[in-house]
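Support request, please re-run this one:
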Amino acid sequence: MTEPADTSVKAEAPDAPAPAAAPAPAPASPPAAESAPATRGGFSPAARELALLAGLYVLYSLVRSLASDSMAIATGNARDILAVERVLRLDVEQAWNAFFVDHHALAVASSFYYASAHFLVTAGVLIWLWRTRRPLYGLARTALAGATIVALAMYLLVPTAPPRLYGGYVDVLAYTSDVGWWGHDASSPKGLGGMTNELAAMPSMHVGWAVWCAVAVAAATRHLLVRIVAWLYPAATSVVVIGTGNHWTLDVLAGAAVVAAAWWTMRILIRRLAPLRWPL
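Re-run finished. Output below.
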């Protein structure tokens, strides 16, 4: 006989306890250098740069106001400059000044340009370099500061009457002051003429800063059209500062030379200090 199949259900052994899961490794903390932007003294690099540039401008304004206000000395220096220009046939100031006065629209446009471009364009180039060309920024900023300090020393040593104060020339900004924010004292806002020294004219840092902008842009890009536009800026500034009666031709050349020398000096210093990782 065949035995009936065993239909009883065999009790299964209870499941063995699952092995305990290994604890997840703690997330690695980021390196200190990457966890936050580098700071020095509790200030971000951008804040330090703003403080440095603001301090430079305050120094620039202060020294200009402290320069000699002796019209006798300043007029004598202007006379010497004009004598040299006549020998070199660079004395174009009177002809250009007369042309600006005869063309009112040009006089107005040049006055707005003179009163604002050197601030706006210089600041714009500095910001652009900081945001997009950081390796070049240190050289450019330090060259700008160095050139400005040299100019301040020259303002103290060589007070010079600009053409508009020398006699025989028209002060174009004063002539157009009814359409702008400037008064009869250089490009100062109305009522603030006493805060600037109008005899701080040699060298022209309107032109110097414009040349700095052109050199910085040319060093930062290889785009031919951008470079051409960059160099048109100091050329236009030179025409404006002479035509408005604010600078002599030699002031213009001196401003360009001071910036060129500062930039060249900084390039040499950076090459020599780079192996030492010296900050600039």
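Residues 1-5, 7-16, 27-40 have pLDDT under 50 and may be disordered. The first helix runs from residue 32 to 35.
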